[in-house]
Amino acid sequence: MIKTILVTGGTGYIGSHTVLDLIKNGYRVVILDDFSNSSPKVLEQLEKLAGESISLYNVDLKDAKQVEAVFAAEEIDAVINFAGYKAVGESVEQPLKYYENNLIGLINLVKAMQEFAVKKLIFSSSATVYGQPEIMPLKESDPIGNVTNPYGRTKLIIEEILTDICAANEDFGVVTLRYFNPLGADESGEIGEDPNGIPNNLAPYITQVAIGKLEKLSVFGGDYPTEDGTCIRDYVHVADLAAGHTKALDYLFQDNQGYEIFNLGSGVGYSVYQIIDNFEKVVGRPIPYQVVGRRAGDIPVSYAAIDKAKAVLNWSPTKDIGIMCADTWRWQQKHPNGFQD
Ligand code: UD1
């Protein structure tokens, strides 16, 4: 029997790559998305890449009635929840928008799951829940909390809500995936990260400088206690992240119940300068940059222990930093204006 997976936020950056991976692995996908931070063009591209049509419901997760209607219309076997706001700076300025959207959305989704006896859920969390840790690599059992912004706090609160739901419902199975820093794009260059306005994250900023849309990168802080003075992060290819969801689903369908958390990262840290170097190699010219002051909320070093995902999910990252940068650059070159091209 082909299983049907409801993917909320399936036209976003990580969601779209996961939709593709699920279809390649024989799952049927139904997308729920209101395009609040994505383009309807993503669906067209996904259908071309997958070679089949994909059902999409244009529904806001805050609308409980419409969410229920999707469950009534489809035979759903499991849910992957990518839908959520994710801009750190905006969350500091508009915290209520984040709490309302991310928390009410999740609650409506789980209520509909319970009503329709859907018992398997994968939740997109973030390394941000580890707060400001000092010991690396980060393990799933490390303390969480002390997050630096409301976006991160929505992830933390949802992790706690899901823990409570699993404690109260023995037959519920939830996998929380804590992503480190996603990079790259599908190797076709036809889907990728398409930030609104000026990018907040490092990679899209670099590629927009490389293509001439932005003048130069600001490196946030050159005086961190790291080898070259810039922050270290764990970058992981978005296609590897996507595969992590498919593996997590396989795990849930092996009838695993309860609440489990997995880090998804590459397990390796790269500094901002090392990322610039790697992009310069694939772009073939220097990336102009200047070092400026530190950005509020940034921690010096963050990278994952990925032994648990390797052992339990049989998942391993396959694409190195060179491939991550090359794939990001291919997407940027083919679509200089994102999904407007
Ligand atoms: C951030 C969020 C994280 C979120 C993730 C989404 C924080 C503390 N973390 O991670 O919660 O899940 O984005 O992808 O906000 N940098 C520059 N110049 C730039 C942009 C970034 O030097 O123009 C540096 C940053 O200081 C950092 C590194 O590049 O050291 C990566 O930054 P970014 O891509 O924004 O990711 P994180 O801050 O690690």
Question: How does this structure look, described?
Answer:
- The model has no long low-confidence stretch (mean pLDDT 97).
- A seven-stranded parallel β-sheet has the order 3-2-1-4-5-6-11, with helices on both faces. It has a two-stranded parallel ribbon with strand order 7-10. A two-stranded parallel ribbon has the order 8-13.
- Helix 3 packs parallel to helix 5, helix 7 (202-210) packs parallel to helix 9 and helix 9 crosses helix 11 (321-334).
- The chain is built from eleven helices and 13 strands.
- Strand 1, helix 1 (13-24) and strand 2 form a beta-alpha-beta unit.
- By secondary structure, the protein is α/β, with parallel strands linked by helices.
- Bound molecules: uridine-diphosphate-N-acetylglucosamine.
Sheet with the most strands: spatial strand order: 3-2-1-4-5-6-11
Between the first and last Cα atoms, what is the distance in angstroms?
38 Å
What radius of gyration results from the CA coordinates?
Answer: 19 Å
Structural class by helix and strand composition: alpha/beta
Poorly predicted residue ranges: none
Secondary structure blueprint with pairings:
Blueprint lengths: L3 E5 L4 H12 L3 E5 L8 H10 L4 E3 L6 H10 L4 E4 L6 H6 L1 H21 L4 E7 L23 H19 L4 E7 L1 E3 L18 H9 L6 E4 L11 E2 L1 E3 H16 L4 E7 L5 E2 H12 L5 E4 L14 H7 L7 H14 L7
Parallel strand pairs: 1-2, 1-4, 2-3, 4-5, 5-6, 6-11, 7-10, 8-13
Antiparallel strand pairs: 9-12
Helix pairs in contact: 1-2, 1-8, 3-5, 5-6, 7-9, 7-11, 9-11
The protein binds uridine-diphosphate-N-acetylglucosamine.
